[in-house]
Amino acid sequence: MSSLLIASNNPGKLRELHALLEHLSLSLVEPAALGLDLHVEETGEDYAANAILKASAFAHEADLYALADDSGLEVDALQGAPGKYSARFAGSCKSDADRRRFLLRLLETHPRPWRAHFCCTLALASPAGSIDIATGTCPGEIIPAERGEHGFGYDPIFLVQDTDQTMAELRVRQKNRVSHRANAMRAMLPILKRRMGI
């Protein structure tokens, strides 16, 4: 069975990517299982560039195919911010809750609804240096009060379009039908199967 390294140190992303890939005939490997403590500087100009940086670095270090994700929240009223800076939006060493509070403070002077969407780019890198990318989005809006106990990041304040639920109220299986990461994975699956020979 072919091995695929999930190139992330984020527990939330690792859980979601495992769930999205578990039906495939692949051995899914996490960095910790290989003793990899790799932190890649996200210096790319967009999601794709950052995902490629991460996937390439992990593939090179592990000598395995590596799948990396770069994603962010884009809010219309903030001209697309926080975007690729979503994880560092309120400053370094801040918690998810800190970032949510900071975002809501910025939105207080803007009229609702606060339209937004999540974006995700997945990059698949081979040890030899080939790169494939796939993208996905999920539309919705930001709400002023947190709801739900699942998910991570901005999920508790992101109301998914055409539902009355935040990302954090969705169970993993529900989220993996509608999320930006799920949509990117749907686009990546044919590529992944071809590259991995499954």
Structure, explained:
The chain is α/β, with parallel strands linked by helices and 198 residues long. The protein has one domain: Maf protein. 32% of the residues lie in helices and 24% in strands. The chain has 5 helices and 7 strands; from the N terminus they run βαβαββαβββαα. Strands 1, 2, 3, 4, 5, 6 and 7 form a 7-stranded mixed β-sheet that branches. Strand 3 and strand 4 form a beta hairpin. The radius of gyration is 17 Å and the shape is globular. The mean pLDDT is 94.
The CATH topology corresponds to Maf protein
Rg for CA atoms: 17 Å
Mean pLDDT over the residues: 94
- The second-level CATH architecture is Alpha-Beta Complex
What is the count of DSSP helices, taking H or I runs of 4+ residues?
A: 5
How many beta-strand elements? Answer: 7
- Low-pLDDT regions: none
In short:
The chain is built from five helices and seven strands; from the N terminus they run βαβαββαβββαα. By secondary structure, the protein is an alpha/beta fold.
Top keywords for this entry?
Maf protein, 198 residues, 5 helices, alpha/beta, seven-stranded mixed β-sheet
SSE topology:
Elements lengths: L2 E4 L4 H11 L5 E3 L17 H16 L2 E11 L6 E2 L12 H12 L6 E12 L5 E12 L15 E3 L11 H7 L1 H17 L2
Parallel strand pairs: 1-2, 1-3
Antiparallel strand pairs: 3-4, 3-5, 5-6, 6-7
Helix pairs in contact: 4-5
